[in-house]
Amino acid sequence: MQEATKRSIFRWIHIVFAIPIFGYIYSPFENIPSYAPATRFFFVPVLALSGLWMWKGHLLRRLIAKKSARSRANAPTAEMT
Fold first, then answer.
1. Where are the beta strands (DSSP E) in the chain?
2. What is the pTM of this model?
3. How far is it between the farthest Cα atoms of the chain?
C-alpha cells in the first residue's frame, strides 16, 4: 500500500472519530452520561493514536525497519552439511 493511501486512511479515521467528541462537548448536559464511557475509553484513545501516528509515525516506521533489518542480519543461516 502506498504511503499516500495510508495517510489518507489515518486522516479519515481521525476525522470520523472526532465527530462523537464534538457531540460529547456540545451536547446538553443531561445527555452526556449516556455516552461518556464510549467517548472516554474508545473515541479519545483512537483519536489520540491516529493523531500520533500521523504526526510521528515516520519515526516509528523507521525504528521498526531498523530492528527488523538488524534481526535479519543476526539470524542464524542454515548451513549446508
1. none
2. 0.67
3. 76
